[in-house]
Task: structure prediction
Amino acid sequence: MTIKTILIDDERKALAILKNKLERLCPDIEIIAETQNPKDGIELIKTHNPDLVFLDIAMPELSGFDVLKHFEKPDFEIIFATAFDNYAIEAIKHCAIGYLVKPIDNTDLITAVTNAKNNIEEKSALFKNKQLIENLGIQTFQKKKIIIPSIEGLEFIKIEDILHCEGEAGYTKIHLKEGKPLLSSNSIGHFNRLLENNEFYLVHKSHVINLSYIEKYLNEGYVILTGNKKIPVSRNRRQDFLEKLKG
Result:
């Protein structure tokens, strides 16, 4: 499978390094265009209809997110590139979109391209890109959505609807305020990284809880969530957890 690819990065050196790495490490990639100008990048995407776009986030005039917003139906796969930016990475991860942190590691690049290839075959880019655009317009963390791959396809779940995540043998069961739990093939560690901020907490190696739904803490080391859900709190995390609740 040949992946028609466009590279957009305002830094000439970064663009040259990325191109060289792709040519050496990713034989499925066919670079059909490249530019340092994000406005030109928009026109290149419209003209060439690529399968994949490598898109730098921090660019003058238009950010990578601004470029994406110029498309009514952004049905191309994206791999964002960024210097370490918590807000940007959080937004991208929530929507299961690829990203690379500069300087780009060879193994990370190969993994991102492999994932992109699978996503292109599944034709899921349009839904994920639209969700990213929607999330970028929402300031409240709990109101945003995350994308959870399931057996049937992709589940778009509001963060505020998640009660807690429970790890089970490498999988994660996502318990919701209403309805049946969802099962994800991602580990509990994945969801801890995805949801970690002031509103979620890893109380146990197998449990990440939404702090908004705490109703009671029991001295024997359990927390009670809405719906009378009883979740254990690890002994070595209790003191830090109680400090967080007080703060």
In short: The chain has two domains: 3-136, 157-246.
